[in-house]
Amino acid sequence: MNPHHPPWIRVRLAQGPNYHEVKGLLGGLSLHTVCQEARCPNMGECFESRTATFLILGPVCTRNCRFCAVEGGRPLLPDPEEPLHVAEAVRTLGLRHAVITSVTRDDLPDGGASQFAQAITAIRQESPGCSVEVLIPDFQGSARALDAVLEAGPDILNHNVETVPRLYPRVRPQADYERSLEVLKRAKEHGGCLTKSGLMVGVGESGDELLEVMADLREAGCDLLTIGQYLRPSQQHLPIVRYYTPEEFGRLAGQGRAMGFRHVEAGPLVRSSYHARQQLEAGDK
Q1: Cβ distance 108 to 74 under 8 Å?
Q2: Residue 30: inside a domain, yes or no?
Q3: End-to-end CA distance of the chain, in Å?
Q4: Beta bridge partners of 229
Q5: Phi-psi domain of 48 (left: phi exceeds 0; alpha: psi -120 through 50; beta: other)
Q6: pTM of the predicted model, to two decimals?
Q7: Which of 52, 55, 71 shows the shortest CA–CA distance to 63?
Q8: Which CATH number characterizes residue 195's domain?
Q9: What's the total number of domains in the chain?
Q10: Of 57, 181, 275, 282, which residue has the fewest beta carbons closer than 10 angstroms?
Q11: Is 244 exposed, middle or buried (0-12, 13-18, 19+ CB in 10 A)?
Q12: To 5 degrees, how large is the angle CA 98–CA 102–CA 108?
């Protein structure tokens, strides 16, 4: 961890028997996790508690967002056995809540939506009592692709807006803010699941801009929100403009709850799937 981070940025070391067991299981099934590929600061904590966020459709993304550590380039074809392997890992770990995300696959006709749907179905068959959360890309705005995922019946449909619209050209130039809002709005209109989104702070946004995005998310019917500090993966990525204090995260969480979000998870190391099961339980209340 960067020694220049403020003192409240504390990352748990990756160690312990559960950590090594989870890592071995994932390797044995040829599965990827966003924990590893995106260098999540919570990986040690989550693996030790026998949880992980599965990254399907391979570890190579067709986009090149300037905040993300996931490798960009030309991906391989999807593995047809991957949904079954994810379901096997969920069953072996005894998960009560499974989180599945993916790289963005603009090279595929459906953006990988069918792989999401198959993974959801496989988990339902192998672990009937397990709730399922999916963190999806925008599928380039394809309603058919989004509907394919929704028809599989996830408990939570998550799609991150990541930052404020003014910063999209610099932070995520291949994405579109209004398109991301439309994904969440359509998912809510479809019904049957909670919707969720995430924001990272510290890349140059203003406080007013953050509140405007939160209001836009509520207008789109978004139920759950995560807010975390951007941490620069390497010198080639976006610089950190500033660090938010724990008190500021607390205020953002309070403002989000006042707007009507069912639950807001906000903190320096919060990421989309951090304490995901607890977020679902809070959102169901």
Answers
A1: no
A2: yes
A3: 37
A4: 201
A5: alpha
A6: 0.90
A7: 71
A8: 3.20.20.70
A9: 1
A10: 282
A11: buried
A12: 135
